[in-house]
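Entry 14. Ran structure prediction on the chain below.
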Amino acid sequence: MSNKINPQQLIQRSLKYCEGRQFSDAIKILRLVIKKFPNQLEALTLLGTVHLHQKNFELGIEFLKKALLISPNQSFALNNIGNAYYELKDYQLAITSFDKAIALNRNDFKAYYDRGRTYDAINEFTKAINSYESALRINHNFIEAYKSISITLKKKLEYKKAILYLNEAIKLNNQDIDLFLLLGELLEVVGEYVKAISKYKEALRIEPNSIRILEKIVSSALNNPTTNFEIDTLNKLLQIDPKNLKGNIAKAKIENYSGNFDKSIQFYRKLLLIDPLNTPDYLHDISITQDLMGSNAFKNEILNVIDNTADEKFNRIYNLYFALGKFYKDQKNYKESFTNYLYGRALKKKSSKYNISKGISELSNMRIKFDQQYIDKLSEYKSESDLPVFIVGMPRSGTSLIETILSSRHPNVEGIGESPFWEPTSDLSMFANEDYKIKYLGIADRYIKFINDIAGNDKNAVRIIDKLPHNFVRLGIISSIFPNAKIIHCNRNAIDTCFSIFTTPFESNYHDYANDLEGLAYYYIEYRRLMTHWEALFPHKIFNINYEDLITYNNLWTKKLFDFLGLRIKNNMKNRPLSSDLIKTASSWQVRQPIYKSSINRINSYKEELEPLIKIFKKYPKLINLD
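Output, structure tokens:
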């Protein structure tokens, strides 16, 4: 190399190294330039930028600041410094740098965008949205800004606005897969499940064999309240990737929901090999899809996994003990059965963040606060439709059985399973100001569209059943908006119900009030109080049916159910087997067994173990009948 250094030639060479991603070589040349020419502005700026590419953020900031001392008006350098602080999670310094860059160049859309990302990181969502909107005003075609603003709007629960932005972005670029996936996710959130899957399929058009997109379609169809499982898409996914985790989970669950329990077990067995980390889940799922009488090999399999928990890590170990509880129950070894259920609950409680006091307060607050004034406020949003039917009660009280009876005995009655539509309405705080008006505007029409979509838009449907048991919390809201809706409340012996809840490790932590018998007892008592409140507030609106009566006098109470719905049992439907319906709850196997009276007073075998629960219930004879 000549003794006379030409800085521009060396800088050009370093740029070529950068283009080839040979950053280390570029850094060596730039350091040589700066050693000879300490104030060479272009070299300082480029060296700082290269260090950022190398994730050497502190060094990058150092050289960029040296460049700014020479030329303070470089918005580019200020923006890069801001991004370096962002990566270092020093968000306030990042925002300061972006503000300086914007002050120097009001048309720097990238600085507005990067400032928006930073505000989003510190949960200042309104400021983030304002920054993204500024970026888009300058550069209407900036697709990344559309993506980011939709994500931030989603965090603010402004779903409709987020959907509008994504639709606008797709008009600009209909080949960007992420736009369709983001839009699909938002449509799922607002209950537009059919549209969501259609957007995922548009993404699939761009990349037909994408595992990521195929998984999205399969998971959406599986997890949402619809009976369309997109089987062709699922089969394609497993054809491309036979060991695909999400695909095999979907297969196992769909076979279970369809009553094909042997096939379901085959897929769970396959999952044990594919996904050993979640072995406890799969063994539990196997345990509840069959009678384990005489299955000692299965017990030994569970015990072997338990013996290995010290050496191998598993998720949700508590499920192993629920599986053992089921095994010993089927063996009629009730003491050993309960010991395992109890230990499983103790482990689940240890891993849970559920606050039992908060859970009970949700019910008591609804009971204390919801009165005529709320009915009056909601009156302008009501619908006269009698299409919806709500089946409510505690979990494991017979709601799945009632839905199955009704939908299998009449061709124009459809069941949509457990819909999450009304879950957000549990919060009454929005009624303290005008926020509720935005939330409830058009809610009746949205719900009717929602249940029709899930039911396949069958124009002959005269009743559509939504059987999320915990809608009992929100019956005041539901009854105010749909005064003509039919509400069926399923009662079951209190101890039988609680025992069944206690021995079922629901996937959702929402039911972790059952992690100990005392908490479960007081939650159940508050549920009874709330139902008493609803019956007083909405007299003659709620049809109460006892599970025990339905089992013992099935024909009589089935007729009473249809009378309540204003329908007649169709003679040509009477012999339709209950097992022909899809059942997407923990009751799938049980509901498909013949209606049997042994499900009544099952707790006689566990009476001693359940004494703490019974003792609390005896204090409330007016609420709870223990006979």
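Strands lie at 388-392, 413-415, 463-466, 486-491, 542-546. Will compare against last week's run tomorrow.
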